Amino acid sequence: MNGKIVIPVSIIITIVVVVFSLTQNEIFEEQVSEFKNPSEIEDMLDIIKNEKSENEKSENPFIPKEREWITSGPFKIDRSEYLLGEKIFVNVEGLNINEKGKIVFLRSINSTYYSSYHTMSFGGSNQQSNYYFTPDLSIPRGICNVDELIGNWKVIFQGTAYSDLKFKVTKEIIPGYEKRYEPIC
Question: Which of 5, 33, 107, 131 gets the highest tally of CB atoms within 10 A of its CB?
Fold first, then answer.
């Protein structure tokens, strides 16, 4: 009786393994085929080279500033001043295992009032974490033009006693990002 059960079960297992193997091969071939067209890659590289060449030839070429790494305890941001379109990088390194909270980016509304723009959670279970975001116009946030992004910003660390960090967003826009910052409301 056991032989009658073992044989059909073995056949079913063999069929499942064969079907799974064939399916995986097809998926892998599809993924590889995405990268088989070298002309698309070459076209993208040509676009990048052209944009780089145009930037270098322009009267005022864009050259990113060196990173400064402003710190407050284990938290660091990479600059004190950002152009519109630049990513704000946050590095968290060396948190205690029990430290948890939120990193809150506040944009200035006026000289005394700030409004929350972006929030990121952090936890001490990660030895090192890197985050980034780009200040952008946003209809849901009611940020319709660049004037609402420009100015002094503050970073607070909820759930900790670490000091706030401050940075500034300038009215300059990274070349090529002008359309991204046209008024939207």
Answer: 107
Segment 149-177 mean pLDDT? 94
How many other CB atoms are found less than 10 A from the CB of residue 7?
10
119 SS3 class: strand
d(CA 158, CA 72): 13
Q: What is the pTM assigned to this prediction?
A: 0.69
Amino acid present at 147: D
Q: Please list, in sequence order, all residues whose beta carbon lies within 8 angstroms of the beta carbon of residue 41, skipping any fewer than 6 positions away.
A: 35
Q: What is the widest separation between alpha-carbon atoms in the chain?
A: 88
> 164 in helix, strand or coil?
coil
- Closest C-alpha to 177, from 68, 70, 55, 24: 55
3-state secondary structure 79-114: CCEEEECCCEEEEEECCCCCCEEEEEEEEECCCCCE
* Parallel/antiparallel/unpaired status of strands 165-173 and 81-84: parallel
pLDDT of residue 21: 66
pLDDT digits (tens, 9 = 90+) for 6-31: 677 677 777 777 666 666 655 555 55
Tell me: pLDDT of 159 over 80. Answer: yes
User: Beta strands 81-84 and 88-93: pairing type?
Assistant: unpaired
- Mean local confidence (pLDDT), 110-120: 91
**Considering just the CA atoms, what is the radius of gyration of the chain in Å?**
26
